[in-house]
Design goal:
By secondary structure, the protein is an alpha/beta fold. The chain has 9 helices and 8 strands. 50% of the residues lie in helices and 16% in strands. The strands form 2 sheets. Strands 2-6-1-7-8 form a 5-stranded parallel β-sheet, with helices on both faces. α1 packs across α9. It binds 2'-deoxycytidine-5'-monophosphate.
């Protein structure tokens, strides 16, 4: 399928910004799959769910109601758009996303949205597990330092105590966890167009993607 564009890559590579712009340009829907894992992490924190308690986690996933409305996201009726963009939820979402029951629970919502077509979907496993039949797969990357710098710029507005050095360490830790977990690890495959955005502007990246789209 050509009208499902998948963008995978590590934290801070710019997937969200790029996917949103690309979707707007093409008149497609946009799905930020990381936000789903962040929403689950938020609920886990709210309910103090023990991550080793499989049945509690299963119940949480079955019952949580996540909705997207434009740029806003809600979980069980609570607007969590801003609250999920913190270093703490970032770390917890990475832990939560390594659990097979969580991934299985969030598979359907992602897969169904792809089946409707005209969508840009971004995350860690969108081109490998969620929609492998996409004919427009991209892998967006950047150096660890650049990715950490971008994350730091985002996070420091909310958290005055955050430092660039700590953000670099966080990003490295998440990279390792996200790409070495057993279930659907972040993987770059031969059928993905690789883009290193370290020295590229947002517009450059969008142009590169648009230029290599199979239509
Ligand atoms: O892209 P992000 O930083 O919002 O993602 C948060 C976490 O969710 C990330 O550390 C790994 C996980 N994730 C995942 O495992 N699979 C996806 N498709 C998207 C995100």
């Amino acid at each position: 399928m050509k009208n499902v564009i998948t963008i995978d890559g590590p934290s801070g590579a710019g997937k969200g910004t790029i996917a949103r712009l690309l979707a707007k340009k093409l008149g497609y829907k946009y799905l930020d799959t990381g936000a789903l894992y962040r929403a689950v992490a938020w609920k886990v924190r709210e309910e103090r769910t023990d991550l080793s308690n499989e049945s509690a986690l299963k119940r949480l996933i079955e019952n949580i109601k996540i909705t997207f409305n434009g740029d806003r996201i809600t979980a069980d009726g609570v607007d969590i758009t801003s609250e999920i963009r913190t270093a703490e939820i970032g770390e917890l979402s990475s832990q939560v996303s390594a659990l097979p029951s969580v991934r299985a629970g969030l598979f359907g919502i992602q897969r169904n949205m792809c089946l409707q077509g005209d969508v840009v979907i971004e995350g860690r496993d969108t081109g490998t597990t969620i929609f492998p039949e996409s004919e427009n797969k991209f892998y967006l990357d950047a150096s660890v330092e650049e990715r950490a710098r971008r994350r730091y710029e985002e996070l420091k507005m909310k958290d005055a105590a955050i430092t660039l050095a700590a953000t670099i360490e966080d990003i490295k830790k998440r990279d390792t966890r996200d790409s070495t977990r057993q279930t659907s690890p972040l993987t770059r495959t031969d059928d993905m167009v690789y883009i290193d955005s370290t020295n590229l502007s947002i517009e450059d990246v969008v142009e590169k993607i648009t230029g290599s789209l199979k239509r």
